[in-house]
Design brief:
With 258 residues, the protein is α/β, with parallel strands linked by helices. Helix content is 39%, strand content 17%. The protein has 9 helices and 8 strands. The chain has an 8-stranded parallel β-sheet.
């Protein structure tokens, strides 16, 4: 498979997807998805992922504590997760960041964990995958004050053009998913229009944010093709060109990916 779609962000070992893991991967292969980055937000998820995909070059892993779960993870679990950063299939620390949408109670703890994980990323020469919700100003400040040597991707970017340019100026890539296809996704389409083609990544965020024409259904990596096709439509590029560019972008950012 020389030219294929990439899902750079999928929670396929999370509850609700792991039960159908084999079918999900079959669907992905049938739809020419050649690379999936599995997001692992707990020690259990890291172990479950490796049990299923260790040694399979179709899969990369990202390992990190999600901001909404900082109070659920013990120090012991955190250190056990970070011990996997040297695994050949772990290509990033993520998803990490700040989320003020669901709960602002743990703002301080979220930022402390964000910075700790940035330090681990730098120690292991890895990029980061950033979760950002209602928190772009604080994330921008943290990333400016705590430089990530290998930069990373702001996943599911849903802010505006001005905010996008700030993160692009810091060297970050932007992840585009289902919102790009939504009727109310004009702001994300505007962001794509100002994002250099060599900083664009495609993603699903499975099981969330299924793109049109699958909106309202459970999302899965097979659906990243609709995101890729929309990127091509908006960039006035044919699908094969979009695939090639995203493969190049992904491999440039996630240097450990095979």
């Amino acid at each position: 498979m020389n030219n294929y779609w990439i899902d750079s962000h999928a929670h396929i070992v999370s509850e609700g997807l792991i039960e159908d893991f084999d079918d999900i991967i079959h669907n992905a292969i049938e739809n020419n998805i050649g690379k999936i980055c599995i997001i692992c937000g707990s020690l259990k998820q890291v172990e479950e992922a490796l049990k299923r995909v260790e040694g399979n070059t179709m899969f990369d892993l990202a390992v990190g504590i999600h901001p909404t779960t900082v109070h659920e993870r013990s120090e012991e679990e955190f250190l056990a997760m970070m011990a996997y950063l040297d695994h050949p299939q772990v290509v990033a620390v993520g998803e990490i960041g700040l989320d003020y949408y669901w709960d602002e109670t743990y703002k301080v703890e979220q930022n402390e964990m964000f910075i700790r994980q940035i330090e681990y990323a730098n120690q292991h020469k890895l990029p980061i995958i950033v979760h950002m919700r209602n928190s772009w100003e604080d994330i921008y400040t943290t990333l400016k004050d705590n430089l990530v040597n290998e930069t990373g991707v702001i996943h599911c970017f849903s802010e505006g053009v001005d905010e996008a340019n700030k993160f692009l100026d810091l060297g970050y890539y932007l992840g585009f998913g289902g919102i790009l296809t939504f009727k109310n996704g004009d702001n994300v389409r505007d962001v794509l229009s100002v994002t250099p083609k060599d900083r664009v990544l495609s993603e699903t965020d499975s099981p969330y944010l299924a793109p049109v024409p699958k909106r309202g259904k459970r999302n899965e990596p097979a659906h990243v093709m609709y995101v890729g096709e929309k990127i091509g439509e908006l960039q006035k590029e044919v699908p094969d060109s979009v695939k090639s560019q995203i493969i190049e972008n992904y491999q440039r950012l996630f240097k450990k990916s095979k």
